[in-house]
Amino acid sequence: MDFLVKLAEGFIGMFQEGGNTFMGLFTGIIPTLIVLITFVNAIIRLVGEERIHRLAEKSTKYFVLRYTLFPVLAVFFLTNPMAYTFGKFLPEKQKPAFYDSAVSFVHPITGLFPHANPAELFVYMGIAAGITELGLSLGPLAIRFFIVGVIVILIRGMVTEFITARMMQRRDQEKQEQGVA
């Protein structure tokens, strides 16, 4: 009987702890996120969605920008998971590489711009807690996360675009061989 009581107390305790965490977020980071999201939406409205679309099309013209600037803008302005819709500006052969770059950037952007992916904030805050416990500033960590993130998404974009091109060539060759046979 004692076991069932402890089990029930542990079970409800888990939800109570979740409630405490939720209230901490509600009085801490959530108001900041709401203000940031409002600010980003206001900028999009002020600049104009058409201009944002033209900028997206221009920023995919060059290889380096396609896998650095473009995913950064997508994640910053549209946040996760809407950022992946920026892929519509790309030809089919570049969409997998863009997705790989964008999905790889949703964590590194969190330190500087938490509105971009609030779900990843828990990971960053866990790391940040250790840094602040050491008495160090979070600014350099956030900037390093961001810079390393941009380098990683460039590499991932290049590699994924190369792999995609090879796979598409192989598929086309197989179709030609089947058509000839």
List keywords for this structure.
mainly alpha, 181 residues, 2 domains
Written description of the protein model:
With 181 residues, the chain is mainly α. It folds into two domains: 1-47; 48-178, no CATH class. The chain has eight helices and no strands. The protein is extended and about 75 Å long. The N and C termini lie far apart (74 Å). The mean pLDDT is 86. Keywords: Membrane, Transmembrane, Transmembrane helix. This is PTS sorbitol transporter subunit IIC.
State the distance separating the first and last CA atoms: 74 Å
What class do helices, strands and sheet pairing give?
mainly alpha
Radius of gyration: 22 Å
Mean pLDDT: 86
What general outline do the C-alpha atoms trace?
extended
The number of strands is 0
> Strand count, sense and closure of the main sheet?
none
Helix count equals 8
Portion in strands: under 5%
Number of domains: 2
Secondary structure blueprint with pairings:
Elements: H1 2-27, H2 29-47, H3 49-59, H4 63-66, H5 69-78, H6 95-105, H7 121-133, H8 138-180
Helix pairs in contact: 5-6, 6-8
